[in-house]
Amino acid sequence: MKITVVGSGYVGVVSAACLAELGNHVTCIDIDKEKVEKLSRGETTFFEPGLKELLRKNVSEGRLGASSEYYSVKDSDVVFVCVGTPSGDNGSIDLSFVKSAAGQIGEQLKESDKYIVVVVRSTVVPGTTRMLIDIIEETLGKKAGAGFGLCMVPEHLAEGSAVKDFFSPDKLIIGQYDEKSGDVLEKLLTPLRHQEIKIKNLLDPLVAGQIKEDLHTITADVMRRCSLEEAEAEKYISNAFLASKISFSNELANILENAGINYFNVRDMACLDKRIGSRFTQAGTGFGGSCFSKDVRALMKFAENGYDAFLLNAVLDRNKKQPYRLVELAKKLLGTLENKNIAVLGAAFKPNTDDLRDAPSLKIIEKLLDEGAEISVYDPKASDNLKKIFNDKISYSPTKEACIEKADICLIVTEWDEFSDEAFRDKIRCPVLDGRGFLNNAKGIGKPEV
Ligand SMILES: NC(=O)c1ccc[n+]([C@@H]2O[C@H](COP(=O)([O-])OP(=O)(O)OC[C@H]3O[C@@H](n4cnc5c(N)ncnc54)[C@H](O)[C@@H]3O)[C@@H](O)[C@H]2O)c1
């Protein structure tokens, strides 16, 4: 199929490169000319495992291009809208980029007789995609349904594993304006539809009775079709669940840590209960990234109308405070942080990305600076982005070994694999505080003693 992707940030570029890899012809559009130039050369503007190779390959084989103009829209079968939807005033969603993109798409559709399906991929509150119909119809002078199609397909990629997630999704949700629009998306996404899933200890006694082994591989249809509003809501429900699970785990870890009990030991036992499950129960400095906070805030605003979503508020509150716990632990160990050399290992909000949006490291570094500490940071990918924020207020170590050299204490802020390397751990002479709960034999959040 011929595809245009409007908005070439994380979501847009990953989607575009992967759709091209499936054999489609894709054009990425962005208002940022620098991004467009880089993409046209097959270069990435951010780090994501596997993306660089995918971009280079598909640009050189002629299936992927980029432009700052919207012309490719009129010749497309499907147009994805992947622009940003940041927090606006009072936490409500800012839809200005989505609306502007819809207007420009409408202008292009005017010049085409083709039936083109517009797909909202950005995270938008329920009702938004239907609202775009008015904008497109007004510009275009044609009615949705006959003149053009409309879908809402929420994006579920996780930065750091986005390419892998695209090709092996847990779910493919197609919100459709009508059957005709949904059919086009179903056809496009069919290569990803049937996923092999490993299932341990099937709970359903009916199924378990028929299958003897402990670990089963089944092929599941992960595609679901639904209304536009259900698809929009599904994304918010997912992010609210995940954010809540992290904040709730942090709450429990803090309680146990204060009582001198190791949260991780207790959690490992509690999570044997399959109703709880172990993923996203890690305690640490809290969640970061561009989505969880802004999406929970947007959901709270959406929920207003007399309803007080106080539980969601608590999820955000816990998360705002959580990074400071690591600084408090450091203070407890050293007495004061003034003029102390602090090694900060990791800055990205998670491993395998250089993304610093909403990263706990930013709050931790700011607080350490307030306390008068000397800070040296090492991150395998995010150091350049960190420099743009802190300039010469902190120092940036070229290696993890250099980072710990003069340290009075070492704070682990991102769980990059290389920080758990035994040989490296042996070189650390100062106390280590684990802010991500991934190291054996280290004190940290939820781990009062080793
Ligand atoms: N980053 C993630 O992990 C992730 C995961 C799932 C969903 N989402 C959602 O996907 C959407 C995009 O997120 P992102 O992280 O890729 O954002 P981003 O800020 O990295 O990228 C958005 C891009 O859109 C461009 N843009 C803005 N207005 C435009 C216009 N009118 N025409 C063309 N380009 C325009 C910007 O220049 C920017 O490059 C958001 O709604 C976000 O909530 C993000």
Describe the structure in your own words.
The chain has 450 residues and is α/β, with parallel strands linked by helices. The protein folds into 2 domains: 2-192, Rossmann fold (3-Layer(aba) Sandwich), CATH 3.40.50; 244-444, 3-Layer(aba) Sandwich (Rossmann fold), CATH 3.40.50.720. Helices cover 41% and strands 16% of the residues. It is built from 16 helices and 16 strands. The chain has helices at residues 10-21, 33-40, 51-60, 96-110, 128-140, 162-167, 179-189, 205-208, 228-258, 263-270, 292-303, 310-334, 360-370, 383-390, 400-404, 422-427, and strands at residues 2-6, 25-29, 64-67, 78-81, 116-120, 148-152, 172-176, 194-200, 215-221, 223-227, 341-345, 374-378, 395-396, 409-412, 432-434, 443-444. An 8-stranded mixed beta sheet has the order 3-2-1-4-5-6-7-10, sandwiched between helices. The chain has a 6-stranded parallel beta sheet with strand order 13-12-11-14-15-16. Helix 16 links the parallel strand 14 and strand 15 (432-434). Helix 1 packs across helix 3. The longest helix has 31 residues, at 228-258. The chain is globular and about 70 Å long. The protein starts with a strand and ends in a 6-residue tail after the last strand. Nicotinamide-adenine-dinucleotide binds next to helix 1 and helix 4.
